[in-house]
Amino acid sequence: MNTEYIYKCSNCGKEYSSDKVENELIYLCPNCGEAKRNTPLKGVLEIVYDYESLRKRISFNDLIKRDSGDIRSYIELLPIKYDSNDRSIESVYNNDLNRLRLPQNSVVKKKIDEQDLLFLDETRNPTYSYKDRASIPVVVKARQMGIEIISTASTGNAGSSLAGVCAMLGMKSKIFVPKNIPEAKRIQIQSFGSELFVVDGDYDEAFDLCLEISQLKNWYNRNTAYNPITIDGKKTSAFDIFIQTKGDIPDLIFVPVGDGVILSGIYKGFLELFKLRFIEYLPKLIAVQAEGSSAVFKYYKTNEFAYNPAKSVADSISAGAPRNLFLAVQAIRDTYGEATKVSDDEILLAQNELARLGFLVEPSCAAAFAGYKNFRKNISSNAKVLILLTGSGMKDFDSLKMWNSKPNVQSIEEIKKALK
Q1: pTM of the model
Q2: How far apart are CA 6 and CA 28, in angstroms?
Q3: Contacts for 191 with CB less than 8 Å, ≥ 6 apart
Q4: Edge-to-edge, what's the strand order for the sheet holding 107-112?
Q5: Whether the predicted pLDDT of 243 surpasses 50
Q6: The pLDDT value given to residue 85
Q7: Is the pLDDT of residue 89 over 80?
Q8: Residue 3: is its pLDDT beyond 80?
């Protein structure tokens, strides 16, 4: 059985038992939590484990020998009940989770301009994006609690992820998306059988509407950061990086940032490895945003937030009101990292370059690579650098069309003549 854990408010520090939070379906801190329109969430709950007890049960050598990509490998650090003898959940662990496993060899090394780079390739996940890391534990937890309907707001990837995972486990999903969702993501959500609500507005409006309707209908809500399990799900990439590098973790990690949950999740994962004394330092986290969606960058630089509608070719990281803004900026500062922003032109150029390296990714991932390119003159050649690739390019054909011209149709004779 996994160790005990509590929920702690990231704002006021108040602690709550897991029974209270989960039995009452509490999302934000009851003492200070706020979910206002077009505003970052206040009182986000963090899940805290008994790390002293875990140190007695898990060793460095034990963890690095476990399978990456399988949440059973680090179930002790997730808020999920695990008992192989409990037949009421046997199918979840012995059958369904085998289908939901992520690729074991997702850390890929490439040499670019004399610099060895690592890429965490999440494009081969069950629904082809990083969002599966959050959806899998959220859905499994909901199933354990006897919940059948789960909702979320999404620019596309979180929605298709939740829809896919729910379909695999025979559960229902309700997805709220903005009207500018890429067609490939919309079709993926619909194909999995989710009930889709296309909002005449942007992602921030879809997020707020999803909260309102979910509370009214008593649907279990997966909204990023609002549901604390999403942060713990996204921290698992740190564990997989640790396992696949045999503990030789990166010095710097470039992270595409929208709502800020991936950033804070990765930070939490490495921080927990540090608390377990498996690593001696925290990687510096470099937050990369699109120029048209740069609220995290601006808050990091000024300590001020002002809502501005987001607009970028990188739809997956377009959020005018990053819901996990405060924890995201804390992750940058606590790791002595940095924040930067890149233009849409730089994003599309980076997407093209990554494709030539064998990574067909959507623009949000390309933003992280573009951020690295802007930073590389300041990075030591000996530094271990990792770049997150968080979603497949097959989810957004429109961006690929921007730099791939449509070829002319030629007759057989014309082709033969041209090739002779």
Answers
A1: 0.95
A2: 14
A3: none
A4: 107-112, 115-121, 385-389, 252-256, 284-290, 338-342
A5: yes
A6: 59
A7: no
A8: no
The amino acid sitting at 53 is S
**Is residue 1 very low, low, confident or very high in pLDDT (cuts 50, 70, 90)?**
very low
In the structure encoding, which two tokens stand for residue 355, read together?
Answer: 């494709």
d(CA 118, CA 109): 5
134-157 mean pLDDT: 95
More confident residue, 82 or 166: 166
Average pLDDT over residues 306-311: 95
- Whole-number Å distance between alpha carbons of 67 and 64: 8
Percentage of the chain lying above the pLDDT 70 cut:
96
- DSSP string over 172-199: EEEEEEETT--HHHHHHHHHTT-EEEEE
Please give the mean pLDDT across all residues of the chain.
94
- The enclosing H or E element of 115 equals strand 115-121
User: Could you write out the DSSP letters of every residue in 92-155?
Assistant: IIIIIHHHTPPPS--EEEEEETTEEEEEEE-TTSTTSBTTHHHHHHHHHHHHHTT--EEEEE-S
Tokens 């921290």, residue located? 235
Quote the pLDDT of residue 226: 98
pLDDT at 81: 81
| Alpha carbon distance 239, 266 (integer Å) | 9
Are 334 and 307 spatial neighbours (Cβ–Cβ below 8 Å)?
A: no
Q: How many CA atoms lie within 13 A of 162 on its CB side?
A: 31
**pLDDT (average), residues 225-246:** 98
Helix axes 325-334, 295-302, angle to 10 degrees: 60
Task: Name the burial class of residue 38, with classes exposed (0-12), middle (13-18) and buried (19+) by CB atoms within 10 angstroms of its CB.
Answer: middle
Helix 261-275 × helix 132-144 angle, to 10°: 80
CATH of domain 107-127+230-401: 3.40.50.1100
Got the DSSP string for 322-360?
Answer: -TTHHHHHHHHHHTT-EEEEE-HHHHHHHHHHHHHTT--
Q: What is the CA radius of gyration of the chain?
A: 21
CA distance 194 to 188: 9
pLDDT > 90? residue 292:
yes
Pick from 243, 242, 245, 210: nearest CA to 224: 210
Six-digit token string for 69: 């990509």
What pLDDT is stored for residue 218 in this prediction? Answer: 95
Q: Please, are residues 82 and 352 in contact by the beta-carbon 8 Å criterion?
A: no
Token pair, residue 19, equals 């029974």
Contact in structure between 403 and 352 (CB atoms under 8 Å): yes
Whole-angstrom distance, CA of residue 171 vs CA of residue 136: 12
What the block records as the tokens of 165 is: 């995972």
